[in-house]
Amino acid sequence: MSGKKKSHKNGKTPSLADVDLSAAVDTVEEYERQISKLQFKLLALQQRYLHEGRRAIVAFEGWDAAGKGGVIRRLNERLEPRHCHVWSIAAPNPDDQGRHYLYRFWMKLPLKGDLAIFDRTWYGRVLVERVEGFARKEEWQRAYAEINEFERMLADDGARIVKLFLHISPEEQLARFTERLQKPHKRWKLTAEDIRNRDKRPAYEEAIAEMFEKTHTEAAPWHVISAEHKLHGRIQALETILDVLGKDVETTPPPADPEVVEMFRTRYGIEP
Fold this sequence. Notes:
By secondary structure, this protein is α/β, with parallel strands linked by helices.
């Protein structure tokens, strides 16, 4: 199953060229209404995952300034924080560099009932490490099969995986970089590395296309999010997460613990 390609929607491998970047939300009020509704549905789903001991992984990739942080904040805003963990992935430290590149991700996988959110992922091996030359060609070329097997093992073991790529145009990216530079409270978000990466966009586009082609699998398909308009991107991302994690999962609140019900009845005379 690890090598079998199967689209989650239209039977094709995802392509950045197919994304409608004009998609937007009509009003802020409509956005707030939809986000609130989605957040409460995600909370109900998380309660089911806790009750049934399920595990979930949400993996975020995308262009710099595409809005990954904003989506993640809305995703976990109303979830039970003890069972929702956000991992912000940066360059590997010296200890990590002495091990297989997947090691540091294995150590962050969710426990029973938990949701693990990755802000950047193991796909760094076939994206930034490939483009910037941090991995040898033979290393990133074999990584596609390694990643597919990694994800297939997790799926076979019962974990649900949602892989999201947030897409924006180069023009919108430059506008967001400019905003970050001009607003003091956002300057920390803009780095020289962001600018250097933007200069290599064609190389990244090539790497992204090959990533989709070789890792869009039945076990863990890719979902490309139109994030040109931030509010629309957040809604589409949360809808996608809810759709994937909620498939074949009962989303109504779990029943009360019979022992707790009986204790209330006998000790307090209260019927729940």
